[in-house]
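>> received
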Amino acid sequence: MDRAPWKILILLQIIGLTLSSREYVLDSENIFTECLNPPPGSKPFNHLVDISRFTTKKDKDGIHISGNLTTTWDIGPTDRIEINVAILKLDRGNWKPTALAVNVKDFCKEMYDTNTLYYPYSIKYISNKQDVKDKCFNHKGTLILVDPFVLKVVLSVAVPLGPGPHRVVVKLVAYNTDGVPNPTSICMEVPGKVV
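>> returned
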């Protein structure tokens, strides 16, 4: 039995218990940067999708996003994509893990679940959801149309993150039907500050 949905639901419940909210202000309008310590064989965000027709512009309201993406990751159409997300905090010159980390064993299976943590910041604004639902990131060349929206990340967390520099580290690994990982994984970061 896949326990990822339960982990996410429990995490959402914990988050819902808090009385305070903090904003995560992204450092750059580019949103994603290369990982500081990438795993061997990993590639940055632009190996997941082509961003040449995707625009981001930062202002006081947040990051304005529009355009489209085309999948470029060369993996098998039946591969299972596992995602690991962790938040690190800069503490006395060193990046240290926080208690906030999520592992999703089968992202493509769960990407349209409106109860996930990432849905409001990603999948929600794909206008051709039905066209790409069965393709996920597994079919190279899939066009993903993004409705214009303003990205502003507000965190309500029971775990104290504290103000200051943070990094959200996102790692994607594809596994074939035999459970063998693809030699090329994706690693990207979203640097910012908790205020």
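>> Residues 11-19 have pLDDT under 50 and may be disordered.
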